[in-house]
Automatic annotation (TrEMBL):
Location(s) in or outside the cell: Endomembrane system
Protein name per UniProt: EamA domain-containing protein
Membrane-topology descriptor: Multi-pass membrane protein
UniProt similarity note: Belongs to the EamA transporter family.
Annotated organism of origin: Viridibacillus arvi
Record keywords, A-Z: Membrane, Transmembrane, Transmembrane helix
Length: 293
């Protein structure tokens, strides 16, 4: 069951960059991000507190944790992701997501005293080699802007910190309540940031690109996929982030189909190494796969 959830989460997560690219045809990255989070947050709030009416309100202490999660997982991570996609390809973005397991493993070792096994380290190193092989052609030919990589790096670190912080906080709230406030708080904080960054470059064109992008990003990514993410995090923060090693595989395929991005020989080799890394780390167990099939 966990293997099935992990695979489904990774597929959906990797599609976010594709949907964002379509949205950027019609508006600026930060405005698209802010619109996504505010719409998702409002819809979740209406369902949780006005339609369902069975979920609790956060306590005073939980509000502090939710604010930090909203800042880390929504404002900084996803805000930076949207901004970076203005400079880098969807395929490269999904490759960078694979840096998170290393950061999470290191932070979990220090912060949560969670021992990272030799098998997990070997698996992550093998997957990282795949990442370097895939990214090298773009860097060597100067196809990627440095600002894009810097923004991506800030976002990935924020997501990793948010993952470990969530596990350590151990909130006694349903996942849907956590996600509601995380998205809503993060979206509200993004409003002034968006104004500052895009006051001179702002544009908005309401068309099928924008509408389709927002529908997918709000309903599928911000709501459904984030609920899967919190489920995986509650099991194990390190193993949950190890699933992100699969995002380049789904990401490259989706980018090739929907954005006509080219899959190179380097990408294929990288995919093999990433899959090997996941198998070596024990995140995808052979027995689990056979049972699932």
């Amino acid at each position: 069951m966990k293997t099935a959830v992990g695979l489904f989460f990774t597929f959906l997560w990797s599609s976010a960059a594709i949907a964002t690219k379509f949205g950027l045809y019609s508006t600026t990255p930060m405005l698209l991000a802010t619109s996504r989070f505010l719409i998702a947050g409002i819809l979740l709030f209406l369902f949780v507190y006005l339609i369902s009416k069975k979920y609790p309100w956060p306590t005073k202490q939980e509000w502090k944790t939710l604010f930090v999660l909203g800042l880390l997982n929504t404002t900084i991570y996803l805000g930076a992701s949207f901004w970076a996609l203005n400079y880098v390809s969807a395929g490269l973005f999904n490759l960078f997501v694979t840096t998170n397991p290393f950061i999470v493993a290191f932070l979990s070792y220090i912060w949560l005293k969670r021992k990272v096994s030799l098998q997990e380290w070997i698996g992550m190193i093998v997957a990282a080699v795949g990442l370097l092989i895939a990214i090298w052609p773009s860097i060597s030919h100067s196809e990627v802007k440095g600002i894009g990589l810097l923004i991506l790096g800030v976002g990935m670190i924020s997501m990793a910190v948010g993952s470990v912080y969530f596990k350590k906080a151990n909130l006694n709230l349903p996942n849907i309540v956590i996600n509601t406030w995380q998205v809503l708080i993060g979206g509200v904080v993004l409003i002034p940031i968006t104004f500052i960054l895009e006051k001179d470059t702002y544009f908005l064109k309401v068309d099928y690109y924008l509408v389709g992008s927002l529908i997918w990003l709000v309903l599928v990514i911000s709501i459904a996929t984030m609920l899967l993410w919190f489920y995986l995090l509650k099991q194990d923060a390190v193993r949950a982030n190890n699933w992100l090693f699969l995002t380049p595989i789904f990401g490259y395929v989706l980018a090739a189909i929907f954005l006509n991005e080219i899959i190179t020989f380097y990408d294929i080799i990288a995919t093999v190494l990433v899959l090997s890394g996941l198998l070596l780390s024990g995140n995808i167990a052979i027995k689990s796969i056979k049972k699932f099939n």
